[in-house]
Write a structure and sequence with these properties.
single chain, Rossmann fold, 2 domains, 11 helices, 39% helix
Length: 300
């Protein structure tokens, strides 16, 4: 890219950092569609893959595969290192057309602009419902990359999964905690507010048992005893492998945990992990898993 095309893209990139989601790029009709894309953020990687685009590289492949997993990342994708400390030398070798990063990653990474075009994007919904936010971001990435049909197909599948789950769970009256246990079994990260998990619960017509303050990701760190604040609630916790196994071993010997009504009455559901800041596919998976998991305890 040279001349006006480069200038148009630079202006677009500068404006995008301040925008809640991706802005329309007036020069897209003239500029070549990026083909070799690097992603620095888990959500942005998920969205690229949802559009059917395998990036040439991403940051922290093991983390993506552990927390997000779907859509599946090709074994041919390169790993450029940690989320906030990519290998500049490797990036120079890869020669990407475009590097996508979250707005929170921009500090200290100004030197990336000398390697390729850098597009920082807001990845937290703030006051916008999270499901609508990730759908909007997917659409606008699709406009930039010429994958509009892929985006609409994915959004339709997401909305269908929400509708199906909502119908399945229509008779559920109990409130729901969604959390993950810390390794020591003494604390939990609980999800709520306007984050992806909290908003998905609302879209399914479920009542979130946790109504406290959460951070920008829709999560709060709380003492385990907070999960007993609403005695008739169902407790859903994400399975994070060894970390969860160790937590459950300790909880098995905890008088506090064993006194919880949800534990005594069999209203605890272990569920495959969902990335709490995930995109459209994560929302679809969460809705499907909630329908399946809660159906087992719906009448308990």
């Amino acid at each position: 890219m040279v001349g006006t095309q480069l200038l148009d893209r630079r202006k677009f990139i500068g404006a995008a950092l301040a925008a809640p989601v991706l802005l329309a790029w007036p020069g897209i009709a003239q500029a070549a569609t990026p083909q070799r894309i690097v992603s620095m953020d888990l959500l942005l990687t998920e969205l690229l893959l949802t559009l059917g685009i395998q990036p040439v590289a991403i940051a922290n492949i093991p983390l993506y595969r552990r927390l997000v997993a779907e859509p599946v990342l090709s074994d041919k994708v390169a790993d450029i290192g940690p989320l906030n400390e990519p290998s500049l030398e490797y990036l120079q070798i890869l020669k990407p057309d475009l590097l996508l990063m979250a707005d929170w990653q921009t500090s200290g990474l100004d030197n990336l602009n000398g390697i390729t075009d850098v597009l920082p994007l807001a990845v937290f919904p703030k006051n916008m419902p999270a499901v609508a936010f990730v759908q909007s971001l997917l659409r606008q990435l699709a406009d930039l990359l010429g994958r509009q049909k892929n985006a609409e197909t994915a959004i339709a599948a997401c909305e269908q999964a929400i509708a199906n789950a909502r119908e399945t769970l229509s008779g559920l009256r109990r409130p729901v905690y969604v959390c993950r246990f810390t390794r020591d079994g003494r604390n939990a990260a609980v999800f709520g507010g306007n984050g992806m998990i909290g908003n998905t619960l609302a879209r399914l017509g479920l009542r979130n048992a946790f109504t406290g303050r959460v951070n920008g990701s829709g999560v709060a760190s709380v003492s385990l005893r907070r999960l007993a604040d609403v005695p008739d609630a169902i407790i859903i916790h994400f399975d994070r492998g060894t970390e969860t196994d160790r937590a459950l071993e300790r909880l098995a010997d905890s008088p506090l945990w064993n006194a919880f009504p949800a534990v005594r009455e069999g209203r605890v559901v272990r569920m495959p992990v969902i990335y709490p800041n995930g995109g459209v596919r994560s929302v679809e998976r969460l809705a499907t898993q909630l329908a399946s998991g809660l159906a087992r305890v719906k009448n308990v």
